[in-house]
Design brief:
Elements lengths: L5 E8 L5 H22 L1 E6 L1 H4 L8 H8 L6 E6 L13 H11 L3 E7 L9 H14 L6 E3 L2 H23 L53 H16 L6 H16 L12 H22 L1 H18 L4 H11 L13 H14 L4
Parallel strand pairs: 1-2, 1-3, 3-4, 4-5
């Protein structure tokens, strides 16, 4: 008789500015299920309140999330960067309440803090709350910092394997010595009760095995890891150009549009042969988004341009002292020592030249 699979529940928690990390955590869990789940018969189901909580008006929102997800979780993964979140009436943020509730219930919480630098201004009050919470945990347990999303991906993949191994060790019990059964009786055509030493096994449970959703591998000629990173960078840039919406909502919108454009249900299924069409789609939407942003959200447009310039300069190893004079000379501009002081027109000219030098035009 086949052994019933064991499913552990993992909940992903964090404010909106770590949406990319939480998405990647879910993908890593799916990878683990595909590579390890079938062999071990242990699987991990991951959940996030935005996709797995059901509407319920019986109590405050966070209490509903706690009851539906946190209380049923075996493992919590929480991430912070610059934002702490929205007060719940009980805690300073929903993520804080989820973490503290899980710890109180004796559950393992894998907590990460992002040290990724970002020149875009953030909410100083939110940053202060993150720092205060981080400092308060130093003596209570072990959290993990990371300085890039690639580092987070590497860390979480290792930590997940360790956490699941710990859960499976707790779940597996020593096999007792076999004893002679007192008697065996069977009634009906589908049910069997095996009696002996006060133990009963109802065969009906094996006819209702839980269905496990397995990750379907991408097609053989799908985009390579390098092409996937390129697509992710394009989507990031489109999100940066999107005004009047939250970043998580913008990510969801652009990924959905990309999937519709390529006629796939997952971006991992995009073919390498489609990269040219994806790039054309990106450039068209970026041009439209930049024009709208420059008019409707000039401050956001300026920050996005400065961020892109800095990133391009870093990729080619150029610094302000050696590159700014060269830029001014090549574009026949007045010398400058800070791109934050440039006019919109000059900033756009600098942006186009720097990206061309970096091979990203």
């Amino acid at each position: 008789m086949p052994q019933k699979p064991v499913v552990f529940n993992l909940v992903r928690c964090g404010p909106g500015d770590v949406a990319r990390e939480l998405k990647k955590a879910g993908e890593i869990v799916d990878e683990w299920n595909s590579s390890q789940g079938l062999d071990s018969n242990f699987f991990v189901r991951h959940a996030h309140w935005s996709t797995d909580a059901a509407p319920d008006m019986s109590e405050r929102p966070q209490a509903v999330i706690n009851r539906q997800l946190i209380d049923k979780a075996d493992l919590i993964v929480a991430v912070f960067w610059k934002r702490f979140g929205t007060p719940t009436g009980v805690s300073a943020s929903g993520t804080q309440e989820e973490i503290e509730r899980a710890i109180k219930q004796g559950k393992r919480v894998m907590l990460y803090f992002s040290d990724i630098e970002d020149i875009r201004d953030g909410d100083d009050g939110q940053k202060a709350l993150v720092k205060s919470f981080r400092d308060s945990l130093s003596a209570k347990g072990l959290y993990w910092p990371y300085r890039s999303r690639a580092e987070f991906e590497k860390l979480f993949r290792t930590h997940l394997a360790s956490a699941v191994q710990e859960l499976t060790a707790k779940h597996q019990k020593p096999v007792p010595k076999r004893k002679k059964a007192a008697d065996v009786s069977q009634t009906g055509s589908a049910n069997a009760n095996i009696q002996g030493d006060h133990n009963q096994v109802d065969q009906r449970v094996y006819h209702k095995q839980r269905k496990i959703k397995l990750t379907v591998p991408p097609p053989e000629n799908a985009v390579t890891p390098a092409q996937k990173k390129k697509i992710e960078a394009w989507v990031d840039e489109l999100v940066d150009c999107t005004a009047n919406t939250t970043r998580p909502a913008a990510y969801g919108m652009w990924w959905k549009r990309l999937q519709n454009e390529c006629k796939v249900t997952r971006y991992e299924d995009i073919l390498s042969s489609q990269m040219g069409d994806v790039e054309k789609w990106f450039r068209k939407n970026r041009a439209m988004g930049v024009r709208k942003q420059r008019t409707k959200a000039p401050d956001l447009w300026r920050k996005a341009r400065i961020t892109a310039i800095k990133a391009a300069m870093k990729s080619v190893g150029r610094t302000n002292d050696d590159y700014y004079p060269e830029i001014a000379r090549r574009l026949k501009m007045k010398p400058f020592d800070s791109i934050t002081k440039l006019t919109k027109t000059d900033l756009e000219r600098v942006y186009r030249m720097v990206l061309k030098d970096a091979g990203n035009s």
